[in-house]
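=== RUN LOG ===
request id: a7f3
mode: sequence -> structure
chains: 1
length: 183
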Amino acid sequence: MGKVVTLGEIMLRLSTDSGVRIAQTENLHTHYGGGEANVAISLANYRHEVYFASKVPENALGEGVRKHLNRYGVRTDFLLTGGPRLGTYYMETGIGERAASVIYDRAGSSFALMTENDWLSEDLFKNVDIFHVSGITPALSSHWKENTVRLIKAAKSAGCKISLDINYRGKLWTQKEAGRNNC
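=== RESULT ===
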């Protein structure tokens, strides 16, 4: 099986019961998740050696993230700690014709505030077959737009194949911003 590194922000999802609107709920269900973390867990289920690279706060929520990923066999050697908070999102679970609705609360999160690549590329990509990242990460900030490109280049230099999930999120940036090539 292959060795894979996924990079992205894992968040705390707070979701309503099916069919209940956020403004009407008195209870929210919690779950850790995010596009890249979900890919990591799926690949670990197929017995790949998977590492998740991110940054979470050094508190019980950050520890919860680590335990969640480890529970599914995802390695957290590249899970950094520090920063002020874990990003969250609220999901109003859809029902019937009504689609799910999401409200993001991720500005100022530990991952989003990273301005530099805090991983040593030689360590992050050593003997790695595939580097997976999504279009969500560069949407988080101008720093992440630049860091994503730098990390992809470092992975390619190390001989990794690149897996890119385009995953455009209109709530994070406009199509015009996503289409700019200022990196």
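=== NOTES ===
Strands lie at 3-7, 11-15, 29-33, 49-56, 79-81, 88-92, 101-105, 130-134, 161-165.
The mean pLDDT is 92.
=== END ===
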